[in-house]
């Protein structure tokens, strides 16, 4: 605390011996020693109290960090649980979609088996495409080739549905 050497202490004792006197010097030195002891104990107690406060503050910070870490760990667990739930629901939805897809494919195949197919003859003897075109006459590939229209087997002629042009003059009134 104070940087007091041997010569400083000797000088203080000589001054005390001259001022106080030799009869009262031992009692005064005893009282000074008691006071110095009390001062040292007080300083030591304050030091211990400060150390306790520092340790208590560090402990509080550690607990706060631990609590924060515990909260983060709980949050991480919650996120993992939600992730697992989402994955499970995704698998369930995926499975439902696959089963619905397979069911619709099966139903589609059943409908295709029940509907007439263009390559198969129908009961009335007409083709499914003919029934869709309003029973228009069908041109063969040789007729189309002769007229220079190429190989258009199922397409009706563009001139077949149009009436011939009328070149006569309209009547005047």
Q: What helical percentage do the residues reach?
A: 55-70%
Number of helices: 4
Biggest sheet character = none
Bin the strand percentage. Answer: under 5%
The count of strands amounts to 0
Our measurement of the CA-to-CA distance between the termini, rounded to an integer number of angstroms, reads: 138 Å
What value does the average pLDDT take? 77
Which residues sit in consecutive blocks of at least 5 with pLDDT less than 50?
125-137, 143-147, 149-155
What structural class do the secondary elements suggest? Answer: mainly alpha
Oligomer: single chain
* H/E topology pattern: HHHH
What is the overall shape?
rod-shaped
Features:
single chain; about 170 residues; mainly alpha; about 0% strand; rod-shaped
Give a quick rundown of the structure.
By secondary structure, the protein is mainly α. It is built from four helices and no strands.
What does this molecule look like?
- This protein is mostly helical and 173 residues long.
- It has a domain of 40 residues.
- The protein contains four helices and no strands.
- The radius of gyration is 57 Å and the shape is rod-shaped.
- The N and C termini lie far apart (138 Å).
- About 14% of the residues have low confidence.
């Amino acid at each position: 605390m104070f940087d007091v050497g041997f010569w400083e202490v000797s000088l203080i004792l000589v001054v005390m011996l001259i001022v106080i006197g030799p009869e009262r010097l031992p009692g005064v030195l005893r009282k000074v020693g008691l006071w110095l002891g009390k001062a040292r104990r007080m300083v030591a107690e304050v030091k211990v109290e400060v150390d306790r406060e520092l340790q208590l503050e560090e402990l509080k910070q550690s607990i706060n960090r631990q609590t924060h870490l515990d909260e983060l760990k709980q949050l991480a667990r919650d996120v993992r649980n939600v992730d697992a739930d989402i994955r499970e629901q995704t698998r369930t939805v995926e499975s439902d979609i696959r089963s619905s897809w397979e069911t619709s494919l099966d139903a589609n195949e059943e409908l295709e088996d029940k509907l007439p197919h263009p390559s198969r003859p129908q009961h009335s003897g007409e083709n499914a495409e003919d029934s869709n075109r309003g029973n228009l006459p069908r041109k063969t590939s040789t007729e189309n080739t002769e007229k220079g229209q190429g190989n258009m087997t199922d397409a009706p002629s563009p001139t077949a549905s149009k009436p011939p042009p009328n070149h006569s003059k309209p009547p005047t009134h």
